[in-house]
Amino acid sequence: MQLIGKTAVVTGGGRGIGRAYCERLAADGANVVALDVEDTSAMIATLAKGGEHLAITCDVGAPEQIAAAAKQVLARLGRCDIFVNNAAILPVSELKTVTSELWQRVQAVNVEPLVLFAQAFVPAMAEAGWGRIVSTGSSVTLHPQTRDIAYMTSKGSIHALTRALANELGDLGITVNAIAPTVVKTEGFVARTPAGGPSAEDMMQRIVSQQTIKRACTPKDVANALAFLVSEDADFITGQILHVDGGRTRSGA
């Protein structure tokens, strides 16, 4: 319960990795705000009691909705101590077919919220002299996959932004890091499996075969990494990309 009194905001908090983040943060005592394009009220009701939890419906690809959501958080809970930039979309994209509209939408959802929410929440973090900003990056930046150029670019941008913000905010007592998980078997991963191609299970087994730990990564594995990065134990860690991938990314890879 090390996060008692802290408020955490998680984008894409309704399912998959985002839901695991919310569950772990609540279990550790934080007030949890789950932002999602879908209503997360039912999920919020299942979180560990003791904190004040809030569901906000928000399309993070729309700057005006980000502004409204941040305003609601600050009005209701006073501040955000922990911001988790997790929401993302993974549409199929390759050079010969990608459109400007799809490209811009992926960057708007996956990248821009990190900047816009930081602008909204950093002032109170700086005033308190303590803050945590953590994004969900991706191992795809080191292990490229076909038909993913827009998504891969967005996650590379998240890694770069993480380092840039860490450089800017370190003197304020705010750490900025990213978690780069391998492929996690979530609803989104299964839904994206192409018709007529390898099954989700076959794709997962191929990835597991490249790891030193021979099992699939779970949302809980990623949430455990988050719990460390937002803790006091990680007070001297910033600007880092933490790979949670069972050893798929090894030294020199």
From TrEMBL:
Ketoreductase domain ranges (all copies): 6-182
Coiled-coil segments on the chain, per record: none
GO molecular function per UniProt: oxidoreductase activity
Keyword terms: NAD, Oxidoreductase
Pfam families found in the cross-reference section: adh_short_C2
UniProt record similarity statement: Belongs to the short-chain dehydrogenases/reductases (SDR) family.
PANTHER family for this protein: DEHYDROGENASES, SHORT CHAIN, ESTRADIOL 17-BETA-DEHYDROGENASE 8-RELATED
Protein name, entry field: 3-oxoacyl-[acyl-carrier protein] reductase
